[in-house]
Amino acid sequence: MSSPVEQIKERISIEDLVSSYVKLEKAGKNWKAKCPFHNEKTPSFFVSPERGSYYCFGCGAKGDIFTFVEEFEGLDFRGALKLLAERAGVSLPAYNPKEESEKEKLYRVVEEAAKFFEKNLEKNKQAQKYLEGRGLKPETTKSFRLGYAPSEWRALHEHFRGKLKDSDLEMAGLIKKNEEGGERYYDRFRGRIMFPIADSSGRVIAFSGRIFPEIPTKVGTPTEVGAAKYLNSPETPIFNKSSVLYGLDRAKESIRRNNFSILVEGQMDLILSHQAGFKNTIAASGTALSDSVFSKENVVSNFGLIRRLSGNIVLAFDADRAGFAATLRAAKIALSLGMDVKIAEVPSATDPAELIKRGGPDAWRGAIRESRHIIEFLLARVLKGDLDSRKVAKEIKEQILPYVGAVESSIEKMYFVKRISEAAGIPERALEEDLRKIDRDSKAEKEEIADSSESENKVRRKERILEKLLGILYWQKSLPNPVLDVPKILEDLNGVLKVDVEERKGEIPDLIFEAEIFYGETPDLEKEVKELLANLKEEVLREELAGKMKELYRAEEEKNATVSAEILRECQAINKEIEEIKNSRFSNI
Hints:
This protein has 589 residues and is α+β, with helices and mostly antiparallel strands. A 5-stranded antiparallel beta sheet has the order 1-2-3-4-5. Helix 16 packs antiparallel against helix 17, helix 18 runs antiparallel to helix 19 and helix 18 runs antiparallel to helix 21.
């Protein structure tokens, strides 16, 4: 019987998968599109049905259906395997607890905790009544897997005693050690309604807990007076706060279909929005909005994922001062990433959840339909205030023009300058002059963000190719009769990297699992390894070329013609090697 990977590939073609994420155009026997992994005006991203792969001649992105899902969704191999298996209707073999990696163990621990919290909510009529009072239907509560953490010091810890290790529960952020010392643990979440946070494939990775009941009867109980209204999981090996948004796993298909996302502040806002039929809603609660496409761990950030799904976003945060500040921060981040940002106000309500509860889906639909571009929204806000013309001009310069400067399109910038000029009575020339100053001040920052984003993208791609090669080597090494010459491939790998590869002990089980599942049925494994080595060499050469180009720029700045000429020759030689690798691949597409 063929492996799960082969079954999935038989049922999902590369063109069907990619076309569900980006618009493809026919190009001979292949398909082409604008690359989803970097900004471009002319399509350089090609999909080959014959080879079952894709390649971007602009940024070098390459791979098959699994690689595409990993890159686009920001998932690891197991997450991509789970997502594609569900889509293809393929059953995956049960994991052997004795062979599971540290990360896989944490996924299992957090999933077991989610079930524990769900069962406790079923027993707690008071919490159920509270959720119904907020407008949630019982089927919605069940669908979103809401739970309850008992108001006891060690309910979860005692429930899993003898079943799960304390060290695993602690690493998953579910229990804490007594702060006074000793080995005694207590539950992190106590007396709270629990909202499970999932990754893009639907695996539970963390929790956000809302205190309930809000005011305990006495100090000293597990949920004390003054405790934070919301408590979130700490960062763990499987939970990076800047790479996930609450509800994204449920919203992504609707975001793609409707070509816009709705970002709200709280979990209740999101759940009621979904219940009202707006399934393209995501929430920031329990996570951290990232101001770059990648996090410091080279994981695709939450805004990076949203932007890939759609460049259009509507922000609908709470109506209070903190909510307004959060809206402005989110808007600035989204604009800096090239997104079209609108603001939806919640009239006569404190947040979207209350608006939906009071006015139903129609009231929420009206707020979304009447949403305005962030600049129009801010302009109306400034002009509504009781300010003299001088203060209006000052507010526009400080509060609005930075957002105009963040808009990518020059035509759009000029439109907003004209719009502000007409509405506020300020000459366009004066606005343009101030805008140029803002653009000059932010130019270096924008270039740094763009360079950093591109660099991080390349580093991540190189790392993934290296992980695949190491997985194959570790897997082959573990076999009594390997089909590959492991020492020779290791020598080739070290030659490409120009350094000796270090063993990654903690990651070995994950890497072996991926290699065994992915390449176990491959008829010509040696050919696959050669292709991966070529891919890795291309990434290394691109990295080397980028370094040489910086050296060339410095030499030209110093007017050192001899050094410039030598570096230019080196750049040309590197470019030639890259072109040879690309041309060999292009001839096979």
